[in-house]
Amino acid sequence: MLLVTASARLRDEVARVAAAAGVDVSLLEVHDAGHIPEGSVVVLGSDAAARLPRLAADVIVAGFPDESTLLWEQAAAASAHRVAVLPEAAGWLAEYLSRSRHGDARGTVVAVLGTNGGLGCSTLAGWLAADAAARGRTTLLVDTDQLGGGLEAGLGWEQAEGLRWPDLAGVRGSVNPGQLRASLPAAHGFSLLGWGRSGGAVDIPRQAVTEVMTGAAAGFDLVIVDAGRVRAEAGSWLAVADRAVLLMPAGARGIAAAAAAAGFLRPVPTSAVVRGPLPAGMDEDLAAEQAGVELAGYLPRLRGMAAAEDRGRLLEKAAHRSVRRLLRRLGPAVSPAVPPAVSPAVTRAG
């Protein structure tokens, strides 16, 4: 991991985070930034971000609370998709740097969340997984709500053989990505990690969640996490997310909830799917603008969804014209084409 800053305070803080993540830090001068190899992980201080050209690297702008507004402005100017306001974001940054050690072997983790329950997060997550699989991506759909009735029922997968979350509760240490992928139920071109019929709540330790999700990201091109309603307990799932898709209503309360949710989700890059129906005088662009989030698409209310879920036929509803339109826009955004191999990350500057 490369750090570009002249701030001794930021150097010390990032060094502590990197040590916790088990990642080596190499300090780079601003005038040497043009030599950064494509695919490197680069942390830019506020003193450096505005002075650098756009980099073909994984760029994180980092700083402290007294400059948080400036950091977001500089991130936009530097095409950085992540901002780490320290020390609050130290845990997230440590987790992100730790996962970066997998390099180009790691897939993308996308969390699908809603501002409130009943918006259709599970359905959207399933559609995205099926869409990515149809475009040739190895894809895993993860159900995080063990008390929600199960994605398996809505997809018609109750009898599918393979591991569920209760089987992985005792995980200690790294999970073999190949073994995990081979052990999960699969159909419609993608795999599913759900809860099965456990007969009651099962406590999955946070460390087990992290190790399983890290192994999943190393074993699949794309991991779609059905994270349900935005809530404080979602932290263990969001720690491994590269981006979030927020499902939001277009009314005044939905817009206010989406604005609050976007703040909670930071520094995970977040875009919104606006859920119909639209109130008079409102459209999806205006709803996303008022919530302060990027618009990812619009999903109207569809007839027959409850019956499709009861019959395990949710994926069939993706054939609807409005859903196809949404997936044409959102699908490639959450699972872009696999880039060509890049040079190994630099371990020593200069």
UniProtKB/TrEMBL annotation:
<dbReference type="Pfam" id="PF26563">
    <property type="entry name" value="Rv3660c_N"/>
</dbReference>
<protein>
    <recommendedName>
        <fullName>Rv3660c-like CheY-like N-terminal domain-containing protein</fullName>
    </recommendedName>
</protein>
<feature type="domain" description="Rv3660c-like CheY-like N-terminal">
    <location>
        <begin position="4"/>
        <end position="102"/>
    </location>
</feature>
<dbReference type="InterPro" id="IPR022521">
    <property type="entry name" value="Rv3660c"/>
</dbReference>
<dbReference type="InterPro" id="IPR027417">
    <property type="entry name" value="P-loop_NTPase"/>
</dbReference>
<dbReference type="InterPro" id="IPR059050">
    <property type="entry name" value="Rv3660c_N"/>
</dbReference>
